[in-house]
Amino acid sequence: MTSQAKSPISVPPPRTWDARLARRLVTPLVNSRVTPNHLTTLRLLIGLAGALCLAHGEFTWANAGALLIVLSNFVDHTDGELARIGGKSSRIGHFYDLGSDALVSVALFVGMGIGVGGAQTGGLKIAAGVLGALAGVAVALIFFLRMRIEDMAGKAGTKQASVGGFETEDVLYLLPIVTLTNVVLPFVVVASIGAPLFAAWVVFDYWRVARRTARPAAKASENSQRWASE
């Protein structure tokens, strides 16, 4: 008896250009031993290496780190596409992917802050490393709350805005411009302000979704108690 190769599962095409390219690249891996978790691990290692390069602070290292972060951001799409078209989705893999996203994002901002902290603090009264850590913690909170919102409202509840085939997170593809023009410090300062503000909005969104999903449960419990008393 000969084994028949498993064909990729037919799923709607991705909306963004990088996800479309990622799907083309991983399609030959559907029948291989490569799993989505392998690709998630690769994304994690590349991202952490990029953050370490950024933390070095020197111009060449910073640019190398930016390129690694861009590569890591792209590879982040490959695990999800392989899981979808190969029927290899798992809850553990999903949480591993989210955790890797959060860790790379935190390491990115902390690394950038450390990298500029010793070289150019300008007129800042707070060390750039602290600002990077602040942005990183805010990003970690955003990832955690979005994961909780997804549990309550499904993926539609955490759907990112998409314009011209680009999503909000694709701003990281512009990171090499930040390092090449040597404006890492202003970027860290803006991130230390913008990330906490966005985190505050996500906290409000989480509270709103939690209230909305709690109403049907409360009503069902009330009806159940009413029927039991009749």
Topology:
Layout: H1 17-26, H2 36-56, H3 59-86, H4 91-117, H5 128-153, E1 162-163, E2 166-167, H6 175-180, H7 184-229
Antiparallel strand pairs: 1-2
Your description of this structure?
With 230 residues, the protein is an all-alpha fold. Helices cover 71% and strands 2% of the residues. The protein has seven helices and two strands; from the N terminus they run αααααββαα. A two-stranded antiparallel sheet has the order 1-2. β1 (162-163) and β2 (166-167) form a beta hairpin. α2 packs parallel to α4 (91-117) and α3 (59-86) runs antiparallel to α4. The longest helix is centred in the last third of the chain and has 46 residues, at 184-229. The radius of gyration is 21 Å and the shape is globular. The mean pLDDT is 82.
What attributes characterize this protein structure?
single chain; 230 residues; mainly alpha; 2 strands; 2% strand
